[in-house]
Amino acid sequence: MIRPLTRAVVFPLAMTAALASCGADNRPVTGGTPPPAAEYDMSAAREIISTSNEPAKRLFGAKRSSSNQTPAAWGSYAKGCVAGAVQLPETGPTWQAMRLSRNRNWGHPELIDYVQKLSAKAAQQPGWAGLYVGDMSQPRGGPMLTGHRSHQIGLDVDVWMLPPARLNLTSAERESLSSISTRRANGAYVNSNWTPQHHQVLKAAASDPRVARIFVFPGAKVQMCKDETGDRSWLRKIRPWYGHHYHFHVRLSCPPGMAGCVNQDPPPPGDGCADAQEWVNNILNPPPPDPDAPAPKPRRELTLADLPQQCAAVLGSR
Ligand SMILES: [Zn+2]
Hints:
The chain has one domain: Muramoyl-pentapeptide Carboxypeptidase, domain 2 (2-Layer Sandwich). Helix content is about 25%, strand content about 15%. It has helices spanning about 10-20, 40-50, 55-60, 110-120, 170-175, 195-205, 220-225, 275-285, 310-315; strands at about 70-75, 80-85, 85, 90, 95, 105, 130-135, 155-160, 185, 190, 210-215, 240, 245-250. The protein has a four-stranded mixed beta sheet. Strands 4-5-7 form a three-stranded mixed beta sheet, with helices on one face. Zinc ion binds near residues 148 and 158. Zinc ion binds near residues 148, 151, 156, 158 and 249.
């Protein structure tokens, strides 16, 4: 897709400094070629940042379309934005995007490609016409008005546990249909909705080298650890987490060469099965609360100043 460049005047020095410091998020960035500087008017961006105390979720939540920029993920999964995002078509040969009213079927092109390929693999499973795809990112990523803390840089996707029986759901049906829970005992075990096909779909999902990790409830991981008789290396990327029994959550690594996109540390070596069993044990026999544990700090709303400065340019782009 060819897009006209809209902002021409930029100070190259300011751009270099902005990339080196990566806004408020001071963690290391991966190296690579920056997107064309002409797409980022950083002096205008800094002005937006200094004058806006509006919660970032309201600014990003109001955008209905993606930015007119080269695709780029800026910042980290729970503190960032995405430039030049692409919309997953509402229906494809092997998928349907759900809850269209949320307008969260957007992502980095790498994520769109991933979802399409994974859905084609899922469609080979008996009983699965493909995938029902839940939340990805908003058109320009960023914090959301409701729901997730992550999903901000166009590299996260929620995939429904409900095997798609058909792929001709109307938009009304996509609002009202619910996924199914696959857990029992608070996530310590899978329930009868869990099938060998879920195992195969998650295995295919984790086997794509672009995946950083996949979040699912602990009982599912332990079940897959027990059932896997072949290659176990993919299990490393399946990470036990709270919730995640109506859907599993795939997180891609930063695409190679993407300056300004912040990866998480990779999962520890090994299949992680003992760790998942420990999660299960803690669900079944919760340890007594630690009386010295500090009270959880209330979370402050993110503002534009908390995000990489490029996110203001993403927001301001046509
Ligand atoms: Zn998610």
